[in-house]
Amino acid sequence: MYHIIMDNFTGKYCVVTYGCQMNLHESEKLAGILEDLGFTRIDNENNADIVVFNTCCIRENAEKKAEGNIGALKRIKRNKKDMIIAVGGCMTQQAGYADKLIKEFPFIDIVFGTHNLENFAEMLTERLENKKHVVKVDEKEGKIIEGTKKTRSSFPNGWVNITYGCNNFCTYCIVPYVRGRERSRAPEAILDECKQLLDAGYKEITLLGQNVNSYGQDLKTVDFAELIERISALDGDFRLRFMTNHPKDLNEKMVKAIAESPKTTRSVHLPVQAGSDRILKLMNRHYTRAEYLDKVALLRKYMPDIAITTDIMVGFPTETDEDFNDTVSLVKQVGFAGAFTFVYSPRTGTPAAKMAGQIPEEVSKERIMGLIDLQNGINRAQSKSYLGKETEILCEGFDEKKNKFLGRDTYGRMAYFDGKDLIGKFVNVKITKAGGISLYGELVSVKQ
Ligand code: 5AD
Ligand code: SF4
């Protein structure tokens, strides 16, 4: 039940998020907008007065999951007519999708695109006043809107957008179609947000962009290296992370800036996608295997201990056993500190979806299993090398199931340990047990 009192609503909201960090951060903006209106958070969508689905469409399974969860609310809404259901995010931005969604799920109240998130309060007001569906999916990105309130949920880490959209058009990827062209945020706005986070006691800043390395190319007054330098010069004991890096745009100036910064962590996420030149070309990645390896060497020249993580895709159209073996050999050669592995999923509207030579699912599944096994072995060996050593961890949270605190070191490696009142503190942990990718240890000291 809503009480409209001088533009204020009361009730419980729940934001359900699918997909990447970018989406998780956008859900923090949605939560900020809803709390500003007077709603309070609840974690169970069935008991909420307003449910917002912040969706992802990067792979088919992300879409299926969201559609399943939306469908499940039909029964709940039948007995709770005032419940408001809103669907936003990447899924809704696909051509013709909003209409399809309303047709399939007529009980949805609001559909909004990735370029319309900041107007969510107006859409909600319109829906409550007119009792009609509200659909706002702008095809084109607008100017960057600053100042949207955020209710953050990731202390002591704060996410900060530096770019929106993507210009790369990798042939498998839907992101450029649903998030528009790349726009860089003004450096002053980024620095202000970082300062606010540090003043509020945050200990880690993660800069977000589809391709952080091309930050500033549209502004022409600043680049990623300079941004790193300026953020690193801010006062305080904090860590600076960023993701994602496109290998084609990683250059020596950036690598130097990262290496020389007292704040950046010793970890970089550098998606390779495939190890075969033929497949990389078909993917429109703009680098060869040798060029990728050169970027790895460049990172290691300035930071010999850097942990490099990656994304890898198997089953791209026409991928042969030989192509796949090139990916396997590259994984062995680099020794990644972690890899997200995906089976290629055709996305309507992308060039790869129309390519001949789509790979049968069984073949892709077998390949991905082999790759996961290989990377698991690498993870185990790297974890074992920690045994008996001390590492500095930023404590991020408490794992209820394990009944332990957890956090990551500068290499991004997760560790679990016992203690008291540690969230947001830097601690030294002596590693006593190595899991697959995670570590377990004893608390040695807490930095004051
Ligand atoms: N199918 C499978 N994986 C994909 N990714 C992007 N598009 C697709 C797709 N169509 C993966 C890439 C990217 C990561 C975020 O998701 O590996 O780096
Ligand atoms: Fe997609 Fe490629 Fe852009 Fe990453 S760089 S978002 S994979 S198009």
In brief, what are we looking at here?
Helix content is 33%, strand content 22%.
Topology, please?
Blueprint: E1 11-17, H1 21-37, E2 39-41, E3 50-55, H2 60-71, H3 73-78, E4 84-89, H4 97-104, E5 110-112, H5 120-130, E6 134-136, E7 157-161, E8 163-164, H6 175-179, E9 183-184, H7 187-199, E10 204-208, H8 224-232, E11 239-243, H9 252-260, E12 267-269, H10 277-282, H11 289-302, E13 307-314, H12 321-334, E14 338-343, H13 361-384, E15 390-399, E16 404-408, E17 414-417, E18 426-434, E19 439-446
Helix pairs in contact: 8-9, 12-13
The chain binds 5'-deoxyadenosine (5AD) and iron/sulfur cluster (SF4).
Q: Which outline best applies?
A: globular
Rg calculated over all Cα atoms: 23 Å
Distance between the termini: 47 Å
Q: What structural class results from the helix and strand content? A: alpha/beta
Bound ligand species: 5'-deoxyadenosine, iron/sulfur cluster
Beta strand count: 19
Low-confidence stretches: 1-6
* Number of helical regions: 13
Average pLDDT level? 95
Strand order of the largest sheet: 2-1-3-4-5-6
Characterization of the model:
The structure is a single chain. With 448 residues, the chain is an alpha/beta fold. The chain is 33% helix and 22% strand. It contains 13 helices and 19 strands. The protein has helices at 21-37, 60-71, 73-78, 97-104, 120-130, 175-179, 187-199, 224-232, 252-260, 277-282, 289-302, 321-334, 361-384; strands at residues 11-17, 39-41, 50-55, 84-89, 110-112, 134-136, 157-161, 163-164, 183-184, 204-208, 239-243, 267-269, 307-314, 338-343, 390-399, 404-408, 414-417, 426-434, 439-446. A six-stranded parallel beta sheet has the order 2-1-3-4-5-6, with helices on both faces. The radius of gyration is 23 Å and the shape is globular. The N and C termini lie far apart (47 Å). The relative contact order is 0.08. It binds 5'-deoxyadenosine and iron/sulfur cluster. Iron/sulfur cluster is lined by residues 166, 168-170, 173, 175-176, 210-211, 246.
